[in-house]
Amino acid sequence: MPGGIDSHVHLDQPGAPGIVMADTFETGTRSAAIGGNTTVLPFCLQQKGQSLRQAIADYQAKANGNCYTDIALHLIITDPTPQVLGQELPALIAEGYTSIKIFMTYDDLKLADRDILAVLDVARQQRALVMVHAEGYDAIRFLTERLEREGRTAPFFHGASRPIPVEREATHRAISFAEIVGTEAMIVHVSNRQAMEEIRRAQQRGLRIHGETCPQYLVLTEADMDRPGMEGAKYVCSPPPRDSDSQAACWEGLQQGVFEVFSSDHCPYRYEDEAGKKAPDGNNSFRYVPNGIPGIATRMPILFSEGVGKGRIDLNRFVALTSTNHAKRYGLYPQKGTIAVGSDADLVLWDATRDVVITHSLLKDGCDYTPYEGLAVRGWPVRTLLRGVTVMTDAETGSRRSGMELQRSLF
Ligand code: DUC
Ligand code: ZN
Ligand code: ZN
Question: Which atom of ligand 1 has the smallest separation from the CA of 291?
């Protein structure tokens, strides 16, 4: 098959003070190759007050010479000053940084509605795609403060602090803003039926709204965050895993084309680590547990086994959801995402009958656990080739790190 493309991963991204992401570009792309991927798209986070160019230079310094797969960077805009929106961003889009993530929540990341509209408008004019983290800041803050007053502070209550209506409302607002501006948008990491239906309705009305979902919304539920002690922290991500009807809705979205990309949202924090899931204040409240879970290597095996293996999707849709559609949406097609004359020879050989019980030691990432520990899958990548050269055979990558940053075309 064409090598996997994972268009939503976080590597070496700075977080709250004292919190450290578990994967560098080296370990993250190594694990990606183990899981059958040949291209990943990590985020380049603009820190408040920082220029976008400086942010890109920082990430390039982390990535250069260290990657087992090819990469392309999305921008995260947190500080949309007139200089950033008027000058830097248009220039960078023209240079191929054609996708921009924005957040509707988190103290350090969220944009005001006025700024979301402004970013969407620059994207419309310059031909970039805005990716939206759709959860509403004020509602989460209100619920978090109420839960804390009631002493409901265990990791499980992370889910209760951002229930389905919080995501649905923000999804609706993001879609409305894209419609008002007259542009497209990608709603990322959709977790439930109500948000999926907002996107489907928009698509049925003829709006070009795109959707993404992830493995955690197919095979995890809020019950996983209810494990004893701090174990639940291993499953804390945003949006949180929901319930069985949400899982069914995410499958429907994949089957019907509401979701065109299936990404990992790999966002790894070590479990046995004060710089990770056991952050010092995490015992006092879920709000201090860093949000995010690893999954870069397990994305394709989970969708293959649960989707193709169980008759929910066919092999062609699997390839579209894990490779081709990512290349098309993010300006890499036909160099990537297809097996064709003139395209890069990015391939994954798949043993469709291999039975594997997922365990962390197989994945070779920088984390110390996988939320999918013990999950039995049928089908596993046995060899990955990047531009014709083998970079992984039978779970071994060697030390060859020939991945490079890709040029992308306008949206
Ligand atoms: N959003 C992501 O995309 N990844 C992890 C955490 C988050 O809020
Ligand atoms: Zn997000
Ligand atoms: Zn993410």
Answer: 6
Contact (CB, 8 A) for 254 and 317:
yes
The pTM assigned to this predicted structure is 0.98
Q: How confident is the model at residue 69 (pLDDT cuts 50, 70, 90)?
A: very high
Q: Calculate how far, in angstroms, residue 390's C-alpha sits from the geometric centre of ligand 2.
A: 32
pLDDT tens digits, one per residue of 295-341:
999 999 999 999 999 999 999 999 999 999 999 999 999 999 999 99
User: Which residues approach ligand 1 with their CB closer than 6 A?
Assistant: 10, 133, 189, 237-238, 265, 267, 291-292
Give the residue whose CA is nearest to atom 7 of ligand 1. 238
Of the candidates 371, 390, 367, 392, the one whose C-alpha atom is nearest the C-alpha of residue 382 is 392
User: Using an 8 Å Cβ cutoff, are 180 and 117 in contact?
Assistant: yes
Q: What is the pLDDT of residue 123?
A: 98
Residue 337's pLDDT is 98
> Rounded CA gap, 85 and 123, in Å?
10
Distance CA 192, CA 214 (A): 11
Tell me the DSSP string of 100-132: EEEESSSTTTB--HHHHHHHHHHHHHHT-EEEE
Hey, what amino acid is at 129?
A: L
Distance 82 CA to ligand 2 centre (A): 24
C-beta separation of 334 from 2 below 8 A: no
